[in-house]
Write a structure and sequence with these properties.
The chain is low in regular secondary structure. 12% of the residues lie in helices and 12% in strands.
Length: 138
């Protein structure tokens, strides 16, 4: 708790305020994209890269690159041979992560769209998102 996420200039953006999960999260795996699904025989499948670009475009933001994600609840540790393998999440339904925004920001959240086993138990479920005014935590 208290760890800060920083921008490209080293300035704080967010602070981890609470995490009721086992704390298994990922910051190594890139956002899924069309080539990933095409390689699995699923052309046109929804993906985090396209979802992110659509979300920022709807806010009038154009970016030269898609930033590396913070994959909350994603269990994808590096293997001894260097591969990243995405495994079943260690978290349970109802567990949550809370952040404190340290300045005004655009926060883009996409739900994982991997709907084939073993990930997400073969189906995607909704997220519950709460935004509370400064000074309140949930």
């Amino acid at each position: 708790m208290g760890e800060q996420f920083r921008d490209q200039y080293g300035e704080p953006i967010l602070q981890l305020a609470a995490d009721t999960s086992p704390g298994v999260h990922d910051m190594l795996f890139p956002p899924c994209d069309p080539p990933l699904y095409q390689g699995r025989g699923l052309p046109g499948h929804p993906n985090c890269r396209d979802n992110f670009l659509a979300a920022v475009a709807s806010a009038g933001i154009l970016l030269p690159v898609v930033p590396d994600p913070v994959n909350l609840f994603q269990n994808s540790g590096p293997q001894p041979d260097g591969r990243l393998v995405v495994g079943t999440a260690a978290s349970l339904p109802g567990q949550f992560v809370s952040f404190l925004a340290l300045r005004d920001l655009v926060f883009v959240l996409t739900a994982c769209s991997v709907d084939y086993p073993p990930l997400n138990n073969g189906h995607c479920s909704p997220l519950r998102i709460e935004i509370t005014p400064h000074g309140r935590t949930t």
